[in-house]
Design brief:
The complex is a heterodimer of chains A (449) and B (320). Chain A has helices at 3-17, 24-40, 45-60, 70-86, 113-128, 144-155, 168-181, 199-212, 229-239, 258-266, 287-294, 300-310, 313-325, 331-343, 346-351, 356-363, 369-380, 384-388, 395-405, 409-441, and strands at 101-107, 132-136, 158-160, 186-190, 216-222, 244-248, 270-274, 282-284. Chain A is of the alpha/beta class. Chain A has three domains: 5-86, Four Helix Bundle (Hemerythrin (Met), subunit A), CATH 1.20.120; 101-287, P-loop containing nucleotide triphosphate hydrolases (Rossmann fold), CATH 3.40.50; 300-441, Signal recognition particle, SRP54 subunit, M-domain (434 Repressor (Amino-terminal Domain)). Classes of the chains: A alpha/beta (449), B alpha/beta (320).
Chain lengths: 449, 320
């Protein structure tokens, strides 16, 4: 996520490091690089221009004085301005109304409104204990209503049925009525995708808004959107009193510059980001963390939060105890680690959140979620006894395991030696603490020196 | 989507009832066009400022830094060679440069080479694959060909229903299964098409982001399985791109091409304010023929890509 922007800026900062101090000329080079990086990241040109102006002003001003190095000062300035541009702090949803609180979803075709509607409903139910009702006012796209109904079934969230012959406003009114009588806390209204220049469709959503008086009107936008993000966001912002933005498909390799453009144009906070195809893949947006990520500082906070949500605490504590004692760490625990990692979206999702230097170092290791699946397969092909006492596994057992897992004996050997090393590391950890362990890791992972 | 229904319901009285294909294309690209008309029509001389403004316009049309630089360098050379001095003369020169870049992409899709001719569609989520399939089916039917659709998007909720609803309305056979595997559904469809002597098979797949390694593996498998059902198939792998997409369209093209060997592109949603300038970026960095472009929600609004039309609509040339 925003990887390219990150590495690009890292390059700029490196160039600046050799300089004695910030001057009009050397900052010019850095600024040009920042401009180029932002444009390549699909940040809209007007936004880029203004941002560069702000950074320049701030960098040449007195804020630089007293800093340790020009490079640090420049990073500081870019980070501050970037955070400012993305909105100061994380803004949650507003439920301060007579229930049901209505949330209206709006956006272009294919932005991800219906999927986001499902994810948001799940998030509100699971994390905020809300009783949610879903309704679709998309009477245009074939099976759009069916799509939301299916999602509602999957997630076990109430769905208000509608059909193609009805008017969107009537559907929404009926759903609202039903939600009120059945004590729902939240009603999420999904709408058809529409172009901002389609006046008839924009009128329709304006009417929908007037009838429902939603407390939240969320603009759903695809993170891959290009320069046109400014025009679309502006048009939607003028037609509807938006209260927030949801940025979808941020798990692709899009550089995500649209985030900056939309935020700048609408002036509304980005409230959520879509980060995976799974229904759990909706996260609160943290502008400061995003800015840090852009600057290669990594998003360790999100990682920790995710771990808290997904990882089984009891299991983790049991494991921690074993690690501390340095005894009894067996293949069962090894597998448990893999399962927990998978819950957090696999290795590659986690790598995304690490600081640039770390993830670059680890990039050499070529994280392959497939290899991890293979390891799990091999362990699954072992008997419980073999898992507890891996030293039992000799040639004939290896052959059997390899057959069972559909791999070569070589792979079983690899796993066993990997496990042995981990076990050694665990022992070192329990005896000598982290410093010794880091030394032990040297040379074990390719790319780490 | 399929907004022809609502268009007829709501109506837009001030516009002509059928503005025609070129008109729609022009309207879709109007913003770029108008900007360029202003720029060239001003009657000024060719100077650095003009180039700079041109650069701005190209970048804001998603042409991207690399292709923009290339186009401007080419334009400067052309201006020098032809000794142009007036801003108004530069329009022709720019059209020429754009044509040089885009013309090689205009290759018509010929479905007459095989029977059935199997077309597999791929793309990221929300690019417009399923909607495009409907329009393509209509297009091929218009050519007198028989069409069969394979509901290969088994992942997204109700994607199958979306295609089946469409098929019912338009009298096109849709092969679908209650659950399961995209490859299996498409395998069945290809076999059914052989048995029924169908001309064109359009196979839908689930949208996927290129960073999802396992999903990219899955779609590779879909392609391999199609080849098993009918050796040599699919005969065309179409990548559907959303015109709203920025520079990421380029990495989508590269990633899908690497995985599947993409043989053609479909550029959708040009009817918004997006310009689809990213075609130029693709033409420069990773050229693949653009087979179709979509300029409206109507069924007839997906048409073969013609470089001349695209360039003249982009530059705001008069319709002739």
């Amino acid at each position: 996520m925003l990887d390219n922007l990150t590495s690009r800026l890292s390059g700029v900062i490196k160039n600046l490091r050799g300089q004695a101090r910030l001057s009009e000329t050397n900052i010019q080079d850095a600024l040009r690089e920042v401009r180029l990086a932002l444009l390549e990241a699909d940040v809209a040109l007007p936004v880029v221009k203004q941002f560069i102006g702000q950074v320049k002003e701030a960098a040449l001003g007195q804020e630089v004085i007293g800093s340790l190095s020009p490079g640090q000062a420049f990073i500081g300035v870019v980070h501050r301005e970037l955070t400012k541009l993305m909105g100061e702090e994380n803004a949650g949803l507003n439920f301060n109304t007579v229930p049901p609180a209505v949330i209206l979803m709006a956006g272009l075709q294919g932005a991800g409104k219906t999927t986001t509607t499902g994810k948001l409903a799940k998030l509100l139910r699971d994390q905020q204990k809300k009783k949610v009702l879903l309704v679709s006012c998309d009477v245009y796209r074939p099976a759009a209503i069916e799509q939301l109904r299916t999602l509602g079934l999957q997630l076990e969230i109430d769905f208000f049925p509608s059909d193609l012959s009805q008017k969107p406003v009537d559907i929404a009114r009926a759903a609202h009525d039903w939600a009120r009588r059945h004590y729902h806390d939240v009603l999420i209204v999904d709408t058809a995708g529409r172009l901002a220049i389609d006046e008839a469709m924009m009128d329709e959503i304006k009417q929908l808004h007037a009838a429902m008086k939603p407390i939240e009107t969320l603009f759903v936008v695809d993170a891959m959107t290009g320069q046109d993000a400014v025009n679309t966001a502006k048009a939607f912002g003028e037609a509807l009193p938006l209260t927030g933005v949801v940025l979808t498909k941020l798990d692709g390799d899009a550089r995500g510059g649209a985030a900056l453009s939309v935020r700048h144009v609408t002036g509304k906070p980005i409230k959520f980001v879509g980060v995976s195809e799974k229904m759990t893949g909706l996260e609160a947006f943290h502008p400061d963390r995003m800015a840090q990520r852009v600057l290669g500082m990594g998003d360790v906070l999100s990682l920790i939060e995710e771990a808290q949500r997904e990882v089984d605490v009891e299991e983790a504590q049991k494991l921690a105890k074993k690690v501390q004692s340095g005894k009894g760490f067996d293949l069962n625990d090894f597998k448990m680690q893999i399962v927990q990692m998978r819950k957090m979206g696999g290795m590659s999702a986690m790598m995304d959140k690490l600081p640039a230097q770390l993830s670059q170092a680890a990039a050499g290791a070529k994280v392959d979620d497939k290899a991890i699946n293979r390891i799990e397969g091999i362990i699954n092909s072992m008997t419980p006894l073999e898992r507890a006492k891996p030293e039992l596994i000799k040639a004939s057992r290896k052959r059997r395991i390899a057959m069972g897992a559909g791999v070569q004996v070589m792979h079983v050997n690899q796993l066993l030696s990997q496990f042995e090393q981990t076990q050694k590391m665990m022992k070192m950890f329990s005896k000598g603490g982290i410093a010794k362990m880091m030394r032990g890791m040297k040379g074990m992972m390719p790319g780490m020196r | 989507m399929f907004g022809f229904l609502k268009k007829t319901l709501s109506g837009t009285p001030e516009k002509p009832a059928n503005p025609g294909w070129l008109g729609k294309l022009k309207r879709g690209l109007a913003r770029t066009g108008n900007q360029l008309v202003d720029l060239f029509g001003g009657g000024g001389k060719i100077d650095d400022e003009l180039y700079e403004e041109l650069e701005t316009i190209l970048i804001t049309s998603d042409v991207g830094m690399d292709a923009t630089r290339h186009l401007l360098a080419d334009l400067r050379r052309e201006v020098k060679e032809q000794r142009l001095t007036e801003a108004s003369q530069m329009k022709e020169a720019l059209a020429h440069c754009l044509m040089k870049l885009l013309k090689p992409l205009a290759e018509l899709l010929d479905t007459g080479t095989h029977q059935p001719f199997v077309i597999m569609l791929c793309g990221v989520n929300g690019a417009g694959k399923t909607t495009s399939i409907g329009k393509l089916a209509k297009y091929f039917q218009g050519q007198g060909k028989s069409v069969l659709l394979a509901a290969g998007d088994t992942f997204r909720a109700a994607a199958r229903e979306q295609l089946m609803t469409w098929g019912e309305r338009n009298n096109v056979t849709v092969i679908a299964q209650q659950s399961g595997d995209a490859a299996a559904v498409i395998f069945d469809a290809v076999q059914a098409a052989q048995a029924r002597k169908i001309d064109v098979v359009l196979a839908d797949t689930a949208g996927r982001l290129t960073t999802q390694a396992h999903l990219m593996e899955e779609i590779k498998k879909v392609k391999r399985v199609i080849d098993k059902a009918l050796p040599g198939a699919p005969h065309e792998v179409l990548l559907v791109l959303d015109a709203n997409t920025g520079q990421n369209a380029l990495s989508q093209t590269k990633a899908f091409d690497e995985a599947l060997g993409v043989t053609g592109l479909v550029l959708t949603k040009l009817d918004g304010t997006a310009k689809g300038g990213v075609i130029a970026a693709i033409a420069k960095a990773h050229p693949i023929p653009v087979r179709f472009i979509g300029v409206g929600e109507g069924l007839d609004d997906l048409r073969p890509f013609v470089a001349e039309e695209f360039v003249s609509a982009l530059l705001g040339f008069d319709e002739e």
